[in-house]
Amino acid sequence: MKVAITGKGGVGKTTLSSTLARLYAAEGRTVLAADVDPDANLGLALGFSEEEVNSIVPISKMRTLVEERTGANEFNKFFKLNPQVADIPDKFAREINGVKLLVMGTVETGGSGCVCPEHVMLKSILSALVFRKDDVVIMDMEAGLEHLGRGTASMMDQFIVVVEPGARSLQTYEKVKQLAADLGVYQVRVVANKIRSERDCEFIRSRVPEDCLLGFIHYNEQVIDADRNGLSPYDCSPLALEEIKAIKAKIDAT
Predict the structure, then answer these.
(1) Looking at the DSSP assignment, which residues form a beta bridge with residue 34?
(2) Most buried in the list 10, 158, 170, 229, measured by CB within 10 Å?
(3) SS3 17
């Protein structure tokens, strides 16, 4: 299973990504969680300490590695479009609670459609992850839609869009569907987070087809406290854990 989890900033992508990763790891699966957010928080949510997270250098920032694999440097502006990267996930991932974390970083220049050595590296690594056929790969994407414009996540089996019960958040879901189809990814599903009432549930159901709706995660002070304290929501909120288990069951059933 290869899933990219996306959505607007602050909707709860990292909570869902980290908890799904730990649930699969608890089953004995080989799980690789890729953090593709420039404001990388997935490590904390998986259980790493703040000091450990701060010590991790994103792949996109490893200039020597990027130059070595792509052949690009200040003297040579031409570079390989298919660099050798199959060894990178195992070589640079950090493991905790049975989950291998690979902090990818992001490309900070070039905008939509950017083709640069860093982008080529990231896309090549993600392509390599797809071919790890026995692994569960979960990508915690950056906020917004620029990564879809670059095609960084085009190799994934499906996108899961985390939304809140509001019109702007649902607009993001519609845009993700359109862009995902352009990339050849037609399975785009929704998890609704920060639900406070049945009215919120009905709003989501009125905007999202039933077969695309994976489930609901209710507004939860324990999850907020976990985030505030740099702890894993998996360890802090039994209710959120049960709700995400139900979401996982739907993912596994398809």
Answers:
(1) 102, 139
(2) 170
(3) helix
> Using one digit for the tens of pLDDT, what is the confidence trace for 150-170?
556 666 778 899 999 999 889
What's the domain count of the chain? 1
150, two tokens: 């670059």
Closest CA to 190 of 208, 172, 202: 208
CB-based contacts of 58, cutoff 8 Å, min separation 6: 35, 40, 103, 104, 105, 106
Structural Rg of the chain based on CA atoms: 18
pTM exceeds 0.70, yes or no = yes
DSSP three-state, residue 193: strand
Q: What is the CATH number of the domain that holds 68?
A: 3.40.50.300
Q: Note the pLDDT tens digit of each residue in 178-227.
A: 888 887 788 899 999 999 999 999 999 999 999 999 999 999 999 999 98
Which one, of 135, 154, 142, lies nearest residue 95 by Cα? 135
